[in-house]
């Protein structure tokens, strides 16, 4: 909670230095003349009680601020710690009727910081102005029903509490106190709060003397990390154990295909200190080898057997590879984690081609200059890689099953535009043949051979031919699974008694499809799964309620997609696909199942909110407006 403004009671010898420091930092000047005790042009009376009004010359709004102290104030920052501060500022952002129209928001400057001011249903609120995921300006997002949705990737924040309610991202927004005084809208906060755009929600510490339960999380991705934090946020004081086969802390996996030089450390979602501070146990380089849901035990690769009260399965997928002759040659890669980066660092520094098979994307990026690259698979990841390599490699060839990439997801018109964009950058496509073997010399890849007799030179080959669920350890359990191996859950993310699942391996009911069960491998979905599963592990009764949202970036342009369409019979396009400025509606009958956008604006965020609230127009209504 934030401290409320109080009357100032001070001695000049104590208050003077504090005010002097404040004025220097924020470059304020006085509105009113004061006597005695000069402070950068500010003089303060030595009377026992006084409120000092200040304004900033360079900013017309906010118009004034007040500085208050009673010695030391203690503020709960929402980060599990308290900050002692001797300052509090009040900022007048304008008249109640003039600041904002109802249902709008804007970013306001406050000292050296900023805040997002919101007016909805006649009430004002103020929170952090940047999305906690990648820092998008929330003022350009979409405001609806007490939430602001990020325009870039769809994360949602409560505009009154600042809490993150949909994802991606882990952190909430800082919240500022707003009061109406003499018909003026006043924001109150401590100066340091305006310089941060992230807030970690308060979490409890482990205390097994009052809660002896053990919750095990199998997996170390976005779903696992969000679930672990949610357990502590919701008051769970038992043990939280996270198990991951990777050597790293949970990291931002979607970045791997977009920033190939990124390291696991630079992508980590939380630090080890954070996990220790919040009593989240992390076991790296460890796999679950068996689960007995009747005895409630998990057997680990190191021989340990863990007893659990509740378990979350969030193991994600493992990349598939082609089983064809020559697949054991060097320089054939899978895009997975950056765990091999350190092993091949010496090759990067010396500009030598590594002999390590299937290395991380970091190593691949270092080998590309002047090389012939073949990418097998025209998925979003494969095409993002092509866009990264196009201006570096001697040649880039993409191999796919469909003559038009993404046609089954984005439709033929948008898929053709993306293919044309790649071809304009020199990328070649092979869509009428399948790879039949890899050819090599002295153990290293030299070419990819196809079943139609053609041969493409290749120094590097990256396989992006899909993923399989990492659920082999469940074979002897009675946990329900699909034929593919995904874990079947209900709308509470529960598979069976004491067992929950989240992320890429969860086959879950999607509300927008009238609870039809689907498997969706989106980063945003994994976070929402983790949140919902954790709350229900604690005995909650919360249904999974979200609109899927994903994005792809190619050649500096982004496509944003919300909703979910197994299939569609029409694509309604508002705008120009050729100019890469459009909103596309994917219709099945008269129902819009998904929306894809390209170009500036918040159209995808707006569409996601309309779907979430059941307000999306019908296909016939959209056709009438085109």
From TrEMBL:
Cofactors, names only: FAD
Domain (Rieske): residue spans on this chain: 100-187
Pfam families: Pyr_redox_2, Reductase_C, Rieske
Keywords, sorted A to Z: 2Fe-2S, FAD, Flavoprotein, Iron, Iron-sulfur, Metal-binding, Oxidoreductase
GO CC term (a single one): cytoplasm
InterPro entries hit by this protein: FAD-oxidoreductase/Apoptosis (IPR050446), FAD/NAD-bd_sf (IPR036188), FAD/NAD-binding_dom (IPR023753), FAD/NAD-linked_Rdtase_dimer_sf (IPR016156), Reductase_C (IPR028202), Rieske_2Fe-2S (IPR017941), Rieske_2Fe-2S_sf (IPR036922)
GO function terms (MF aspect): 2 iron, 2 sulfur cluster binding; metal ion binding; oxidoreductase activity, acting on NAD(P)H
Listed SUPFAM superfamilies: FAD/NAD(P)-binding domain, FAD/NAD-linked reductases, dimerisation (C-terminal) domain, ISP domain
Chloroplast found in the keyword field: no
Stated family: Belongs to the FAD-dependent oxidoreductase family.
UniProt name for this protein: Rieske domain-containing protein
Organism, as annotated: Pocillopora damicornis
Upper taxonomic lineage: Eukaryota, Metazoa, Cnidaria, Anthozoa, Hexacorallia
